[in-house]
Amino acid sequence: MSGDESDQEQVLFTIGPFGTAVCRGPYGVFKWQTNNMTRVELTPTRVLGRKKRSPFVFGDSSPGGPVVFDIPYAGIRLVRRYDHPAKLGLMDVLEFAFVSATEEKVLSVAAYKGQVSQALDVLRRYVPADLIRA
């Protein structure tokens, strides 16, 4: 799907970019992650990660930006919520196991608990209940 088509898709809920960390694979405090740089968008068909337009703008709530990950709901094998490993009590991790092309991948998003709860509410409408562990 081209960037123009994805820009027209309805965004139901967003997480970040402020207070959001994205990690390829299971989340870990000492693993490579991008902090405050990705806006996670939930649409009726997928989860998109968009890079914030400018690293110098605090928050950057503007729509658009280059897509850094695209997880169609049809490719999701498991969505898992768990406590942030830093045990600060403010954040949770939302982990997606999915199939991309022919390989299985895992992507984790750490965000504030309230945002993760709201994202799960949206995901429950589009992802089969047996694939969500919350």
Features:
134 residues, 10 strands, PH-domain like, mainly beta
Description:
It contains two helices and ten strands. By secondary structure, it is mainly β. The protein has one domain: Roll (PH-domain like). The strands form two sheets. The protein has a six-stranded mixed β-sheet with strand order 3-2-9-8-7-10, covered by helices on one side. The chain has a four-stranded antiparallel β-sheet with strand order 1-4-5-6, with helices on one face.
CATH evolutionary superfamily: Pleckstrin-homology domain (PH domain)/Phosphotyrosine-binding domain (PTB)
Number of domains: 1
The largest sheet is:
6 strands, mixed
Strand order of the largest sheet: 3-2-9-8-7-10
**N-to-C order of helices and strands:** HEEEEEEEEEHE
Q: CATH top level?
A: Mainly Beta
What is the CA-CA span between the terminal residues?
30 Å
C-alpha Rg, in Å?
Answer: 14 Å
What's the total helix number?
2
Which structural category do the helix and sheet elements fall into? Answer: mainly beta
By DSSP, the count of extended strands is 10
Low-confidence stretches: 1-7
Under the CATH scheme, the architecture is: Roll
Oligomer: single chain
DSSP strand content = 35-45%
CATH topology: PH-domain like
Question: Helix content range of the residues, please?
Answer: 10-25%
